[in-house]
Design a protein that fits this description.
The complex is a heterodimer of chains A (about 375) and B (about 475). Chain A is an alpha+beta fold and about 375 residues long. Chain A contains 12 helices and 17 strands. Chain A folds into 2 domains: about 200 residues, CV3147-like fold (3-Layer(aba) Sandwich), CATH 3.40.1610; about 140 residues, CV3147-like (Beta Barrel), CATH 2.40.390. Chain B has 3 domains: about 220 residues, Nucleotidyltransferase, domain 5 (2-Layer Sandwich), CATH 3.30.420; about 120 residues, Rossmann fold; about 70 residues. In chain B, strands 3-2-1-4-9-10 form a 6-stranded mixed β-sheet, sandwiched between helices. In chain B, strands 11, 12, 13, 18, 19 and 20 form a 6-stranded mixed β-sheet that branches. In chain B, strands 6-5-7-8 form a 4-stranded parallel β-sheet, sandwiched between helices. The chains are: A alpha+beta (about 375), B alpha/beta (about 475).
């Protein structure tokens, strides 16, 4: 067990944005909420999965809907508390601890803010090891743990308790309700036992985020390049270095779909990278070959500072390094690929692990 | 018919006289005085005499100054600010959360949360007893005559009605003369940043009013009855009544003025600009007569704001130091950031340090040009800038109001803004349109940005 203070929160926010692979919303407001909560209630207790009693009730917290809406509503934390109370009432058990459903953007920060406000510990675990756009895209779903009963609450005071036959339905119903409730809600989701969380979750994700954030911060302070160390921490691969030359955004059915093109620099001169994204970066490829495919992680980092760039923050002319990070092995199973591989997002590409693609690339060069 | 362009920086005050056919007929510089106005008076007398002009021949005075920025950094002469927040959440992150304590003290920030605001689709939340809560709050805090109000309401870029309602109440309760900033007139989605911007704008109200009153009096004394305009962050100018409402829009206008002046002198509408000053070098892009603007991720005096400002890279290298390979490489790299992929734009050097750099700077892919009048580019740029109206807000689409209708509406609003800012209606046209939807939820919200520009109407309503 250890405590998270302000510096840790700053670092986690940066690291989470990196693992957020371009999506998940800007963690800024979540970070402010957490910092404010720490000021008011003191540091946050962080537990490892081993420190959670086997039968204790753990519930994930966060937001769903449009981050753009959430940054406009300036939430206060009351919503999430209400969602938790509703779920506790239904389950007839007190929540022992909360945890983030994903790494990246807002949802890495919100459980921390809530934990500080409610005096709950946070467990160092998540259900994605990255960011994904839908509720069933969690390792818990792969392991047969239901997303429901779940509760969603809005800032007006409305709370919905949702119980569904499976997590796909949870996603459908909760998303429709979210739109009616004003475009963004806070949720309490994936209630489970400590034992299940340990078996199914991705461990030490906050520690990884913090390590990444600290590396980027120290590199800036010491004026060094952080990319090499980021790759070492994540077992990642440098895929490309270049300059953004084109961004083509379309929004279909609520996804900021699009393609960004980058022109190679240095050893990549003469090559053009295409990044396909739907909120998150999903495919990185050049004209000749595939470089990285979802569920493996694709992160775009500022070439100088290593600071992660979100898909919304991609600007013409920005110089960036694109890195690929192997996803958690659970995502590489048949069900994992089916749930969030390229096919699910509508791309006619076969999934191949980034290590293999990288090796192939080296062999061809 | 002549125009006066005046550029005030921390050290010098520059003045140019430009004729109707855009010839610089006279220029002068004097040290900036502590009160700024005395320096302006001296220099205007000087150029009028030198150019042999009668004051009545001046048809517009355009001023570019970074005084507001200085006021914010030094916490000097700021108005006290009362912030009214309209929304449904209580006890959220307070305004100026990340600002240092001394700024909050300098503006004696007082704030209240009232029920109100709108949903993403523009549906109002009930305002319930907001008015009585407001009265109660105003009784509880001491309101000085010099205090300014900042009003921010949830989703006001979608629907500004509640901000306008509260503004009307405040005028009833505190008098019609009070200075009011409504956040929807200044920034876009992103509540806290937009609210911060409104608070800073309100804080600047007093010094802007003093400056403009002083200028109006000064020019009356000088016999110049022309309209007074100020340059704004997006590279255009606004009438002085408009500047009274939006002082924050003047903060970084001087950089744009330099770019505009340099582009004009070099006869280029599209180029990458390099402004080499003594201690710093600024690099940016100039396209179709305007700088590239970004509104997200910007900070003023360390405070996150939601305000359109030019995208400019600043190197901590200036002509005071030696022009070595490292400096040349940094300038080159910064230029490359703005260069399009094909057909690189010409590089335009300006600023007093450019003479040192240009002979050593190699750029085989495009023209490298240098301007003369280097000290005066900013004053010249101010003189020739157009007036613009900028709309950047959210529109909710439905069966009756499709994308095309929303864009048409935004265009109309932009034209109206330009006319309000002092443009001659007959000269206004639409320059740029951008429309982007929201992500993560399938919904009908569209963010539309439109820029309309026109020319100064010397006999317009601002006089």
């Amino acid at each position: 067990m250890r405590y998270l203070g302000k510096q840790e929160i700053e670092d986690i926010a940066v690291g989470a944005a990196l693992l957020g692979t371009g999506g998940g919303g800007d963690p800024y407001i979540g970070k402010l909420m957490t910092l404010q909560a720490i000021e008011e209630y003191g540091p946050i207790q962080l537990l490892t999965v081993d420190e959670v009693p086997q039968d204790a009730l753990v519930v994930s917290s966060g937001m769903m809907g449009a981050p753009t809406v959430m940054i406009e509503k300036a939430p206060s934390g009351h919503e999430a508390r209400k969602a938790f109370q509703m779920l506790e009432g239904f389950l007839g058990q007190k929540v022992f601890a909360t945890y983030p459903i994903e790494a990246g953007g807002l949802n890495s920060m919100l459980p921390l803010a809530l934990a500080a406000q409610m005096g709950l510990p946070v467990v160092d675990v998540d259900g994605m090891g990255r960011a994904f756009p839908e509720l069933q895209m969690a390792t818990f779903y792969l392991d047969g743990i239901a997303a429901t009963p779940m509760a969603i609450a809005d800032e007006k005071g409305n709370v919905n308790l949702i119980d569904t036959i499976d997590s796909l339905w949870a996603e459908r119903i909760a998303r429709s309700a979210t739109i009616q409730m004003g475009g963004s809600v806070m949720f309490a989701i994936y209630p489970m036992k400590g034992r299940q969380l340990k078996e199914s979750g991705i461990h030490n994700i906050l520690k990884l985020e913090e390590d990444l954030g600290r590396t980027i911060r120290l590199a800036k302070e010491q004026n060094t390049e952080p990319i090499r160390e980021i790759l070492a921490i994540t077992n990642g691969f440098e895929l490309f270095r270049g300059k953004v030359i084109d961004i083509n955004r379309k929004t279909e059915t609520g996804f900021a779909r699009g393609t960004a093109s980058m022109e190679g620099l240095e050893e990549y001169k003469g090559e053009t990278l295409k990044l396909r994204f739907q909120n998150e970066h999903l495919i990185a490829m050049t004209e000749e070959r595939l470089l990285c495919v979802t569920p493996d992680l694709i992160a775009v980092l500022d070439a100088e500072t290593g600071v992660p760039i979100t898909t919304e923050g991609l600007r013409y002319g920005a110089r960036a390094v694109v890195i690929g990070i192997p996803c958690h092995p659970k995502w590489r199973t048949a069900k994992g690929i089916e749930t969030c591989g390229p096919g699910y997002f509508g791309y006619d590409v076969e999934y191949l692990p980034v290590e293999e693609l990288a090796k192939k690339g080296v062999a061809e060069r | 018919m002549y125009r006066l362009g005046i550029d005030v920086d921390g050290v010098n005050t520059y003045c140019v006289v430009v004729s109707q056919n855009l010839q610089v007929i006279c220029k002068a510089q004097l040290p900036t005085t502590d009160d700024v106005l005395t320096g302006i008076e001296q220099i205007v007398r000087h150029v009028l005499q030198h150019a042999g002009l009668h004051p009545s021949q001046i048809k517009a005075v355009i001023i570019g100054t970074s005084q507001g920025y200085k006021a914010l950094l030094d916490h000097q002469n700021l108005a006290g600010v009362i912030t009214i927040r309209l929304g449904t959440s209580k006890g959220s992150i307070p305004p100026l959360y990340e600002a240092d304590q001394s700024l909050q003290q300098a503006i004696r920030l007082r704030y209240v949360e009232l029920p109100g605001g709108h949903m993403v689709d523009g549906t109002p939340y009930p305002m319930e007893n907001s008015r009585s809560l407001l009265e109660q709050f105003l009784r509880g805090v001491s309101v000085n005559p010099d205090d300014a109000f900042a009003i921010a309401s949830t989703f006001s870029p979608m629907n500004g009605d509640h901000e306008r309602q509260v503004a009307a109440w405040i005028k009833q309760l505190c008098g019609t003369h009070v200075s009011l900033t409504m956040s929807h007139e200044i920034g876009n989605i992103g509540f806290l940043e937009r609210e911060n911007t409104a608070v800073l704008n309100a804080a600047l109200a007093r010094s802007m009013r003093q400056t403009l009153c002083g200028l109006t009096e000064l020019f009356q004394c000088l016999g110049v009855s022309a309209g007074i305009f100020l340059t704004q962050n997006n590279g255009s100018v606004m009438s002085h009544t408009y500047a009274l409402r939006y002082p924050i829009r003047t903060l970084c206008s001087r950089a744009c003025n330099s770019f505009r002046g340099a582009a004009f002198l070099a006869g280029r509408n599209d180029c990458v600009m390099v402004n080499v000053e003594e201690n710093l070098t600024h690099i940016g892009i100039w396209k179709k007569g305007f700088p590239k603007l970004i509104g997200v991720g910007r900070k003023i005096a360390g405070i996150p704001v939601n305000l359109q400002m030019p995208e400019i890279s600043t190197l901590d290298w200036g002509a005071k130091r030696e022009v070595d390979d490292d400096a040349l490489d940094r300038i080159y790299q910064a230029i490359q950031r703005y260069q399009p992929r094909f057909e690189p734009l010409p590089i335009l050097f300006t600023g007093e340090g450019s003479e040192k750099v240009v002979p050593l700077f190699k750029y085989p892919w495009a023209d490298v040009v240098q301007t003369d009048h280097t000290a005066y580019v900013s004053a010249i740029g101010a003189c020739i800038a157009p007036i613009s109206g900028h709309v950047d807000r959210m529109y909710w689409l439905n069966e009756n109001n499709g994308r095309d209708e929303a864009i048409a509406l935004a265009k109309e609003e932009a034209v109206k803004e330009a006319v309000l800012a002092g443009a001659n209606p007959e000269t206004v046209n639409i320059q740029a349109i951008e429309a982007a939807p929201l992500s993560y939820i399938p919904c009908q919200a569209l963010r539309i940005q439109v820029r309309a520009t026109g020319l100064i109407e010397p006999n317009g309503p601002f006089r």
